[in-house]
Design a protein that fits this description.
Elements lengths: L2 H8 L1 H13 L7 H15 L3 E5 L9 E5 L9 E7 L8 H4 L3 E3 L2 E3 L3 H20 L7 E7 L10 H6 L1
Helix pairs in contact: 2-5
Length: 161
């Protein structure tokens, strides 16, 4: 079995657990405090593998850049991955549509867009680190607070990166 697939299978329970944590941390676009809580949660769950730079709060909450500490000597250039912390789901959606796992699938507000995607990316970075795969570029995950509402407050930060 490929080392990356083996790694993912070994980490599957942790991947699901973190996905659940992010989904259960509701973060609608119109609630900056909730978006800030999600950024704080992601910061806590990545502190062993990334440094984070959080922007000043915007109308929609803080944007964040997670720079991953990965194997490899010299870093030449950057790989920028964009994600977002805001969701279209209003606060309280979990009461009607709780997180659940069924038949190999995960369900809940924000699972598909985009919380599971951010978890997959975090675990991909963990795989590179744990399997000691050298990376020649700096890898940054930028998590914007306002993607679902047009990215107006994060656009300049994204263009800068």
């Amino acid at each position: 079995m490929d080392q990356f697939l083996r790694y993912a299978k070994q980490k599957q329970k942790e991947i699901i657990a973190l996905t659940r944590e992010l989904v259960e941390c509701e973060s609608p676009s119109d609630d900056p405090a909730s978006v800030a809580r999600l950024v704080q949660l992601m910061t806590q769950r990545t502190k062993d593998i990334a440094t984070v730079n959080v922007s000043r709060g915007t109308t929609y909450g803080p944007n964040a850049r997670f720079t991953f500490t990965l194997p490899g000597e010299k870093k030449d250039g950057q790989i920028l991955v964009l994600g977002h912390s805001d969701t279209v789901w209003p606060m309280g959606t979990l009461a009607k549509m709780p997180f659940r796992e069924s038949k190999g699938r995960l369900w809940g507000p924000g699972v598909l867009d985009m919380k599971a995607g951010m978890v997959f990316f975090i675990f991909a970075m963990r795989a590179l680190r744990d399997l000691e795969v050298p990376v020649r570029r700096r890898v940054v995950l930028q998590v914007n607070a306002d993607e679902e509402v047009g990215s107006d407050s994060s656009r300049a930060w994204t263009e800068e990166a």
